[in-house]
Amino acid sequence: MKTNLCRALLLTGLIGFSAAAGHAQTLSVNVPFRFHTANTEMPAGKYTVHQISSSAIPILVLRNWDSQKSALVAATGRIESSSGDGARLVFRCQDSNCALSQIWGATMGGGVQLAVPKSSSERLSVVYFDRKPAAK
């Protein structure tokens, strides 16, 4: 009985996860410089970005096609879209160190904010996604 209950809960969770992942849009982008996420350093190269959780705090996966390195990033908040700038990654940079701070277009209804330490001498770098869907 206990085993059947565990299986039912696991199956329900997998179905919910698949449904959320099925509605996510996968985007492709070429980032010409190395950068940091909240917990890892990522190399320059071609990336795909897609949402794996559609909860109040979205979780996204960044995957580098050359190195096969992936990173999970959790949003700290949502950003409503006020312009038609399109899908993009926004980085906060200081000297040659850049950190991913926003992702636009991979989630429904605008962008998401990521945790990044702020600095007084930083600059923004923006990398736009390719217009065509990413190959799987």
Question: What is the structure about, briefly put?
Answer:
The chain has 136 residues and is of the alpha+beta class.
List keywords for this structure.
136 residues, alpha+beta, five-stranded antiparallel sheet, four-stranded antiparallel sheet, disordered N terminus
Strand order of the largest sheet: 7-10-9-8-11
Shape: globular
SSE string, helices as H and strands as E: HEEEEEEEEEEE
Mean pLDDT: 76
Q: What is the count of helical runs? A: 1
Major beta sheet summary: 5 strands, antiparallel
Structure overview:
Helices cover 15% and strands 44% of the residues. It has one domain (24-128). The strands form three sheets. Strands 7-10-9-8-11 form a five-stranded antiparallel beta sheet, with no helix packed on it. It has a four-stranded antiparallel beta sheet with strand order 1-4-5-6. The chain has one helix at residues 2-22, and strands at residues 27-31, 35-36, 41-42, 45-53, 59-64, 70-74, 77-79, 88-94, 97-107, 110-113, 123-128. The chain has 136 residues and is α+β, with helices and mostly antiparallel strands. It starts with a helix and ends in an 8-residue tail after the last strand. The protein contains one helix and eleven strands; from the N terminus they run H-E-E-E-E-E-E-E-E-E-E-E. The model is unreliable at 1-23 (pLDDT under 50).
Layout of helices and strands, plus pairs?
Elements: H1 2-22, E1 27-31, E2 35-36, E3 41-42, E4 45-53, E5 59-64, E6 70-74, E7 77-79, E8 88-94, E9 97-107, E10 110-113, E11 123-128
Antiparallel strand pairs: 1-4, 2-3, 4-5, 5-6, 7-10, 8-9, 8-11, 9-10
